Amino acid sequence: MTTQHTSRIPGFYKLPLAERVSRIADWAGLTAGEQQVLLGSSGLGAEQAGHMIENAIGIYALPLGIATNFLVNDQDYLIPMVIEEPSVVAAVSNAARLFREGGGFTTSSDEPVMIGQIQVLDLPDIQAAAEAVLANRDALMAEADRVGGSIVKHGGGARGIEVRPFPETPAGPMLIIHLLYDTRDAMGANAINTAAEHLATQIEAITGGRVNLRILSNLTDRRKARAEGMIPAVELETDSLAGEQVVKSIVEAGVFAAIDPYRAATHNKGIMNGIDPVVIATGNDWRAIEAGAHAYAARDGQYTSLTQWWQDDDGNLRGLIELPLAVGIVGGATRVHPTAGLALKIMKIQSARQLAEVIAAVGLAQNLAAMRALATVGIQQGHMRMHAKQLAVAAGATGDLVARVVQTMIEEGNIRLERAKALVHGLAGTSD
Ligand code: MEV
Fold first, then answer.
1. What is the tens place of the pLDDT at every residue in 298-309?
2. Catalytic residue status for 285
């Protein structure tokens, strides 16, 4: 089979599962053993799970899908997504195709700088303490680098010290010190926590106060990723709506999310429908990513949308996403979990920043998919098709009988298990 160089693979979803695996193997140069990992016949075993967490009793499996059509900074990507929710992978692939028509995504990201927080209390003079910390900035950064290990060897390490005095709190005057720390290709939780803990003694000596907590912040707003893209209005046309009308409705939907936290929560949930599955597939900490995203969405005091949508001068739709994305490609589960390593290989990821940028693009595409459906036919239509498919399978349909049972139930507007069972019985043994 010839190697695919494009992620635009029409009909990928129609291929038998084994053929899909073989296409991905061809795309990423996967060995026979690696394909077995994807198929679940090897990969993370109970034994290995027992080394990852405590009290392990087994493995909990989830579907791993591939989103197609992504073009990010002129490079094609196939995106591994781990998710239990139907429609997400199809919807994001479709949205990526629309962005592709507009030239694909353009992305950028910050240096991978994490924040370590050190809480200081019992301070007689909080202002003097803050000044003393800043005066000792270089010494503190050098000390943090001393325990930086491989991250410092790879060019990472301390990048700054900041002070945030809270003169009046229920616990008395409190000085929060931020250690800014570049963790390179690691998510870096261990590195930043080690550095923050290590600085405690020196900070107590400098401030005359008492250090309490020493821990990273998941509001990683020094480590943001951005993705932007355009969709030609004509691509948004439906049977009953002109493209320009759909652009307008989507822009209005974006404003709804920008002004109303009740809508913003659902809007951002839809964005995380795209982001979390890639974060999970690559063995990254999705709770950290969720915490950072939502805290960032509330940064100005009112919870709001993580994306912006507008109509450009040519009448086309443009979207932009920006959010903290502290993901790594070394350390943690990223290299321990066999499937996580494969996910990185399928995406051909070379750096943590590249991964963060691709994930941002997936979030933007997922958001577009939801808004486009909501602003036109609603989301139930697509969901009903997936629901019908699940019923057909539950009723015992296999192979191409599944599609025929689904189509009949949809045409009849009768999507129920009893009907699926009757159709399986009636249609089995017949063909188109
Ligand atoms: C469903 O999982 C996600 C949506 O509700 C997102 C949205 O409303 O934008 C469709």
1. 999 999 999 999
2. yes
**Residue 14 is a catalytic residue:** no
**68, 66, 424, 102: which is closest to 278 by C-alpha?**
66
Residue 345 annotated as catalytic: no
Q: Whose CA is nearest to atom 4 of ligand 1?
A: 270
Quick check: CB of 404 below 6 Å from ligand 1? no
370 CA distance to ligand 1 middle (Å) = 6
| Residue 425 shares a structural domain with residue 409 | yes
Residue 307, strand partner residues: 321
Spell out where 105-256 has E strands: 106-109, 113-121, 157-166, 174-182, 210-216, 224-231
* CA 323 – CA 297 distance, rounded (Å): 8
User: Ligand 1 pocket, 176 CB below 6 A?
Assistant: no
Domains contained in the chain, number = 3
- Regarding the beta carbon of 146 and ligand 1, being less than 6 Å apart is answered no
- Predicted confidence at residue 1, as pLDDT, reads 43
If asked whether residues 274 and 364 sit together in one domain, one would say: yes
Which residues form the domain of 288?
12-109+225-377
Answer whether residue 411 shows pLDDT above 70. Answer: yes
Tell me, in angstroms, the distance from the centre of ligand 1 to residue 267's CA: 6
Residue 409, domain CATH: 1.10.8
Q: What is the pTM of this model?
A: 0.91
Q: Which of 19, 269, 312, 418 is catalytic?
A: 269
Share of the chain above pLDDT 90, in %: 88
Respond yes or no: is residue 383 known to be catalytic: yes
Beta-ladder partners of 114: 181
Task: State the average pLDDT over residues 335-351.
Answer: 94
84, part of any domain: yes
User: Between vectors from CA 261 to CA 166 and to CA 359, what angle results, nearest 5°?
Assistant: 85
The per-residue pLDDT for range 124-170, each reduced to its tens digit, is 999 999 999 999 999 999 999 999 889 999 999 999 999 999 999 99
380 lines ligand 1 (CB under 6 A): no
Q: Are residues 366 and 246 in the same domain?
A: yes
- For the CA of 379, the closest atom of ligand 1 is 10
